[in-house]
Amino acid sequence: MRKAIDKRFTVGQMANLVKQLLQSSVVALTATLISYTPLQAQFQPSDNMNPMDHGPFVTSTISYDPLTTGSIFVNKGIAVKVGTDPQAVMTFDTDLLRVASAWTGGFLHWYLERDGLENWPSPDGFTHFETGKTPGWSLNGEFKDPRSWPYGPIPKEIGRYKGLYINGDHVLFSYSIGDSDVLELPGFEEIDDHPVFTRTFNLSPTKETLSIRVLQVPENAGMEILSVSDSKEYILIKVGDNTRVVGLQGVFDSRAAWRIQNRHLILDLPNLNQAVQFKLAIGPILPGEASKYMATYLEQSKSVPDLSEYTQPGPGQWETLQTKAVMGDEHGAFAVDELTIPADNPWKSFIRLMDIDFFSDGRAVVVSLSGDVWLVEGIKEGLETLKWHRFATGLFQPSGVKVVNDQVYVTGQDQITRLHDSNNDGFADYYENFNNEIMASTNFHAFTLNLETDTEGNFYFAKSTPWPPYLGGKGPSKNAEITPHHGVLFRLSPDGEKLEIIARGLRNPNGMDINADGEIIYADNEGNWVPTSKVHRIKQGAFHGFIPASHQPDRPDSFEPPIVWTPHYMDNSPAKPIFIKSNKWPEVLHDNLLLASYGRANLSMILKEEVDGVWQGAHLNLPLMFKSGLERGRFHIDGHLYLAGMTSWQSIGEDWGSFHRVRYTGKPLDIPISINTRAGGIELSFIQNLDPQIATNIENYQLQKWTYPWTSQYGTRGKLYSVDNPGATKPDQVKVESIRLSDDGKSVFLEIPALKPGVVNTSIGKLEELPDMIEASLGLVISISYQISTTEGMELNHMIHKTIHKVPSEGFAK
Amino acid sequence: MEIIINRLFEVIKHYFMKILVGSGFVLCLVSFFLILPKSDLLGISRLYNPSFQNTPLKTISKYSDTTVVEISTGGIDLHYSVTEIRAKAGDILLIRYINEGDMSHNIVVVRGEEDIRPVGIAALQAISSDWIPEKEKHRIIAYSELANSGETVEFSFIVPPPGTYPYICTYSAHWTQMQGRLISTE
């Protein structure tokens, strides 16, 4: 325990006291003269999701009550605004191909926690009807859930969601049931002041027998069918003194049949030897036997429309916005330009950028976690005015984007969506389900993240894990679930048909990259079983450390060694690691890595080496700051790095979203170009000649070492574990015997005799104070601080963290 | 410059008795006119004389009224147990910070809301100086030492003139969540 310093109060201290008093008064006067500045954005949760105009629909998991897992009534719901006066909403479930719920009043309500992300939004209105969480259609008259987990889509043979078309205010769903193609248009009409939800269908012929679950009804409900004409009828559902009316309009070869089973009203369609168009009109529950409004409505209604007209592009949706880019200063080796985002936009779109990619003509596409996809025009060497097109809206937390053959693919929590703009007007008109096999379950933290491709055209993305995790029987039961999709890396075939799991044990894989050799890297955030943040090289089929997502029968006793461990004080929340692949960046840096940080809103370099097949790296911050936390980055064909980002919890970002470019200016690099382990030491190489006197002065280097434990505790919370004194939580000093300068004057070798060739063993046993600790060697971290200079007088001062798993047999070649 | 300082000290001593009787208003005026904000030697950075910073309470309390506040943090919380301190301008404020949390923390009192971010950002590059950024010290009124997990630290300072002064933890960007406000009253 530290104690206050005990010193006698001297005359000098009295003078100090007076000075402090006086200066405090200056401070206070100044403070009172300066008007109050609002708190930084991240200090207060945002309510920005509620006022936002999300477009004609929103895709989300939706819950009646944010605190009750059981009240989640749809995992992949597309809430469509079907009426405006009053606001009416119908939610389509793309997993189960059913209408999950319909309500009037308001749209969705988002909660404050974690800026709208911690709890699922709720219907902001009065629910008129809903269906149970089983398939909405049946080929055999039964509606049992055929899935082994209650998440993910039903088998394709039963039904498959294809996508949705947008045409003006209309949202048209396309899917198949058996071998019948279905178009479904949700709608709403007020008839004699009664809110009536409509579902209009076009079905292609099929020899299969189709049944549809319309809505939930009490088991004891009475049923009476009344005919209006050959093609129009309605059914009265009576419960006690209340009545609900459901109308049916359509020409069938024979009559459709109604029944009530398992608390649902079911419509059994007759054989569909030819295409049919029919419409359901679902009225509200009303006291008495009010039904005339439906009879009148059916009498007056025209024929059921051909919905194929809505598959054609409609009118433009959103006006184009402009912003002014800001070029950065070029004093250092890297300049940071700001591609100003239209944060203040007519739709209050809450722009939180998650990823970026480019079209062949150089335009950028960025995705916002709040649901939007934006196209950005105006990218050129000297940035000026940028044009922003709101290309798509309503997606489920988009967090990855990839352009393939000039077509946009977006990762959402629900699916990979392929966006089509068939008339090239800058608005997506068909949101195609490229693959939706991913399970969207109950926990907010099980994000679906990233989208990258390899040279063969395969897609890669990952799924995060629930938080807090379910540990040792503790924790909320909703987190007990680890589905087969939690904490894994996926590969999806170029045609979207084959989804495979290729790596396990990922905790929160917020950022990944692939190089031309097919090497995959990803970053993971500190948390349970992840003592501090790290960057991994993916080994296909292998386990990467997060025990709850090991997906194997026995508890693992080791995991793939990370390329780097990043201490908590350097980066609490890394995002995308990026292979440096640019003809404009120094060649000596090629194939090394950059690491974008969400938590620290900065960019780091990871200089990597390979020792006996193991990648191990050195992490150092670049002196660049960004307006928000960073999420993803990608090199443009122009050779510059573009970075998209956002700010939310545990990030120091100042703005909610940001879009930047990092340019190499050609000025001398003031960072090392390699940091390599050698037998008996570490070699630091620069591109400049080092001042020999300063560079070889051992006083100018400070080294410490430590390791990390593997435990279910949430991170080591900044603690560094001694290797020399297992159990102690202070780093060990590293004894440097000598500093040697290379013949070319550009490298120094720090002689550390303890670094003997072979595998470094850093096991510190099992520490009792750490829960569920598994004894393992997680690698050595050496912090290297130096204050040296070049012969030209350029100061080189850095703090670098080098991770070492193996020491090569080769020594320093002077 | 040395001469100027000595002369300034003479003036300061002249007013010292008035300060001790709590004439805050006079103090403010005097300091406002006597100490130029741009003065290097008498600038705000001199406020951090460590010999005063951690002077024991029993010693300094002889010279002014004293307010003692105990603040703690527990577990993995990024939160101070006390997020609002009220103290009288001109009093001595002693803060005893008990870190029962799992991470290291500190308490840094800054001049205003607009100083939180510059100090917090600069602190990320000030690991070697225990997360107190030298280049932003002019924004800081007082600060504690770094309290590692399980440690208790104390620091004391003169409560500045009436106003609201944020205090933050500058360790490892905790300032985005670990904040409180010192409200200095008449």
Question: What's a quick, concise take on this entry?
Answer:
By secondary structure, chain A is mainly beta. Chain A contains three helices and 52 strands.
Contiguous uncertain segments of 5+ residues of chain B: 1-59
Total beta strand runs of chain B? 8
Structural class per helix/strand content of chain A?
mainly beta
Q: What letter string, H or E per element, gives the SSE order of chain B?
A: HHHHEEEEHEEEE
**Gap between N and C termini of chain B:** 35 Å
Strand-residue proportion of chain A: 35-45%
Task: Give the overall average pLDDT of chain B.
Answer: 75
Q: Describe the biggest sheet of chain A?
A: 12 strands, antiparallel
Number of helices of chain B: 5
List the strand order in the largest sheet of chain B.
Answer: 2-8-7-4-5
- The parts of chain A where pLDDT drops under 50 for at least 5 residues are 1-42
From the spread of the alpha carbons, the general shape of chain A counts as: elongated
The span between the termini of chain A is 47 Å
Spatial sequence of strands, sheet with the most strands of chain A: 12-13-14-17-10-9-8-7-27-26-25-24
Describe the structure in your own words.
The complex is a heterodimer of chains A (814) and B (186). Chain A has 814 residues and is mainly beta. In chain A, the strands form ten sheets. Chain A has a twelve-stranded antiparallel β-sheet, covered by helices on one side. An eight-stranded antiparallel β-sheet of chain A has the order 36-37-38-39-51-50-45-46, with no helix packed on it. Chain A starts with 10 loop residues before the first helix and ends in a 7-residue tail after the last strand. The model of chain B is unreliable at 1-59 (pLDDT under 50). A five-stranded mixed β-sheet of chain B has the order 2-8-7-4-5, covered by helices on one side. Chain B has a three-stranded mixed β-sheet with strand order 1-3-6, with no helix packed on it. Chain B is globular, with a radius of gyration of 17 Å. Chain B is α/β, with parallel strands linked by helices. Chains A and B meet through helix 1 of A and helix 1, helix 2, helix 3, helix 4 and helix 5 of B.
